[in-house]
Fold this protein.
Amino acid sequence: MTDMQTIRAFVDGRFLPASDTLPIYDPGTGEEIARLAECTADDVDLAIIGAQAAFDAGWRRTSAAQRADLLNAFADTIARHRDELAAIESRDTGKPLRQAYVDADFAARYFRYYANTVEALLGDVIPASTDRLTFTMREPFGVTGHIIPWNYPLGLGTRTIAPSLAAGNCCVLKPAEDASMSCVRLAELAIEAGFPAGVLNVVTGRGATVGAALSGHPGIRRVSFTGSVPVGIAVAQAAAQNLVPADLELGGKSANVVFADADLDVAAPAIAQSILQNAGQTCSAGSRLLVDERVHDELLARLVTIFEGTTVGVGLDDPGIGPLISARQRDRVLGYIETGRGEADLVIGGGVPEGVPAGGYFVAPTIFDGVADDATIAREEIFGPVLTVGSFRDEEGAIAAANSSQYGLVAGVWTADAGRALRMVRDLQVGQVLVNTFSNGVELPFSGRKRSGYGLEKGFEALRAFTQTKAAVVMMQGS
Ligand code: NAP
Ligand code: MG
């Protein structure tokens, strides 16, 4: 065990020594593959002091153009290390290798996007009076704290730090204990790309200690949290003690709403992908299918065929789906499947698949049909490869079913009728509506409704969110 690699926090341009460590497991086998430094509240202090020093020493005076150059250099660096980052991510999280490549490419794309857009972040000149200039400018907050979950460390880590760095903040990022490897490597690569030490710091360890220390630290001026509802509430409360704003990107139970006129050739594979991607461990997973009863049987038959043909295996072997992140998460999902058996009809899957390594955290692709809107498996986020299917008669019923959720992150709508598509965009209580597709890009603002939180990620709006407005009046003397 002594020769095992220890993934250590990266603070102020160097790795911190680690006195205590935690195990890192391979989700495909359950074997320990490395150790993770367990940071203390003192380490979090060091990271924030380093970040503030980097901000004061010069980062706060960089121009948007200088930062854009660095962001582009970082994107190039990530692209150069694409194979390495994808392999780390696949091994650490268990996700299929091709998905890890998608995530690595997204990581580069976030920096590229904010490099492209940061110079368009303008203030206003306000026509208040002719004897003075009244204007606003957008300023960074200073040091921002970022807490992310384990499902897409590269994707979610870069999603939150790229706009913050672009806006001129220095960042302290805390990845999840279950998947921290790629984020630590990213911080190291930021130095290779030319970022000054201290601009991007990564602290590792447990949420209850490191995450809590970060979110409640008076040196942090804005907190961005992605994760579960209860922890999000705790993070927002801790930030509120310091009068610091917190963005909360929380869970989801997103619906795909399929009308009878939908093109099922396009819809069926996209709906399957929306729940099977990352083994269902995606905040915006299309975990609830609501289908017009006239096409219910046909769509279900197509989905069963796709689920049957989906291989399950170790991430680096690039199967259809990989394992879940941890034994705990697998047991939680299996628990929901047991609940589902008493609430609805199990169509396919429903347990641990055959032919996978015994120690891995696998769950078979699973479909429940005849799921009522108020069933536990339709209401609660399962965060596994489990699709629930319910049906509706008309548009009104479809909207009511889709909006019955406590969550409101994303909705997919499948129809050939443009008027109906627009009515659905208007009436669905979610932050993003995707019509005849379930994919979105980095350019599209992403924010929740209801218990999905009130974060503002992605797009130009995230860049604005990481700045605050300063207003000024300058009298024209002598006029
Ligand atoms: P979680 O328990 O809320 O953990 C998220 C992060 O918070 C982790 O880094 C965790 O650290 C940390 N944390 C735990 N306790 C903390 C505390 N008391 N104070 C501060 N930080 C703390 O979430 P999860 O169960 O790992 O992740 C799954 C959830 O995230 C799902 O509900 C999913 O929908 C949501 N999610 C949302 C989005 C989105 O964009 N809306 C994206 C992905 C996931 P440790 O893991 O080290 O304890
Ligand atoms: Mg791991």
Observations:
- The pocket of NAP (ligand 1) is lined by residues 147-151, 156, 174, 176-178, 206-208, 211-212, 215, 226-228, 231, 234-235, 249-252, 283, 381, 383, 409 (CB under 6 Å).
- The CA atoms of residues 290 and 400 lie 11 Å apart.
